[in-house]
Amino acid sequence: MLGVATLIIVMAVMNGFRTELVSRILGINGHMIVQPVDGPFTDYPELTAKLAAVPGVRMALPLVEGQVLASAQAGGSTGALVRGARAEDLTKLKTISDNIKSGDMVGYASGEGVLIGTRMADQLGLRVGDLITLTSPEGDITPMGVNPRVKSYKISGLFEIGMSEYDSSIIFMPLEEAQLYFNAAGLVQSIELFVDHPDDIDALRPKVEEAAGRQINLTDWRQRNQTFFSALQVERNVMFMILTLIVLVAALNIISGLIMLVKDKGSDIAILRTMGASAGAIMRIFFMTGAAIGIVGTLAGVLLGVVVCVNIESIRQFFSWISGTVIFNPQVYFLSQLPAEMDISETISVVVMALSLSFIATIFPAWRASRLDPVQALRYE
Known about the structure:
Blueprint: H1 2-28, E1 32-36, H2 44-52, E2 57-72, E3 77-85, H3 87-92, H4 94-97, E4 100-103, H5 106-109, E5 113-117, H6 118-124, E6 131-142, E7 145-159, H7 164-167, E8 170-174, H8 175-181, E9 190-195, H9 201-212, E10 216-220, H10 221-224, H11 226-264, H12 266-274, H13 279-310, H14 312-323, H15 330-333, H16 344-370, H17 374-378
Parallel strand pairs: 3-8, 5-7
Antiparallel strand pairs: 1-9, 1-10, 2-3, 2-6, 2-9, 4-7, 5-8, 6-7
Domain ABC3 transporter permease C-terminal: 241-374
Main location: membrane
Keywords: Cell membrane, Lipoprotein, Membrane, Transmembrane, Transmembrane helix, Transport
């Protein structure tokens, strides 16, 4: 029961962890990134409209990006990534527009404010209406050298995606203002495409290249996050194999338990054999005994696993309250809640594996019982 429940719970948490990370990463980053090859995107409004019209593309988002040092007037600073985007595009990006925790996008739409994450605001002690100072190393060229560009912006709103890496490091700025700040007037660095079916991204490549009508470089979300998601898959497979050993150990306990039962019931087996019971009948009796342990334990483990997965966040909060510590720290695991997503096919495979190990474990003790010689068993009785 405990082995099956542990396997189901851990695999569900890892599935939920991957799903949440994929949805949040792809919720703020495009599924396909279009970058220029033969020259900058100076005609980005027309090109964006062409790419957005490709069947299967949900939205095209022209971007200007740059690294800055963000600081507050009261003190404190942190590195940040500024993403310049049009207000109408950011409104369509539901990951941001639906998660404005404080303030609004009115100031952003008018070009007079920026949006920052809640964790960055907490780190710098900022609120809506305060000024945030951005310092870019790519500044103005003067006779004395390159002077960093420093400018303050009013905070229009605070967003919370739920992924601490983004909530603490990304600043959204109106596109026109970002073009001026990064000396990129009239052009964008890239156009990010959000598609309807991210897993079918390969089928869209030729259509996007044809719609662009110029030389472009295409990078999809799998290439940008290949190492990350490959590591998650390897960890998931290794965890499955390791936790399967718990079920295997439980199956070996069935073997030892049945062997002791056969020893204890030796005289009873001998009496049944002398009364006419066949070796097959004796074997079936002990096989049913061991199989019953496996079936009941597996079903109870599935039930326990489902109950824990459904209430996983409440259980986490309860143990955090009991221990007085933060379990599943969002700053370490990137997510603010512990996710769990049960996969039907995966759960069925766990059940089948557990039942198979239980049935295999009963074969040898049952065979030993069927081979017991009645004469040897009753000689000293």
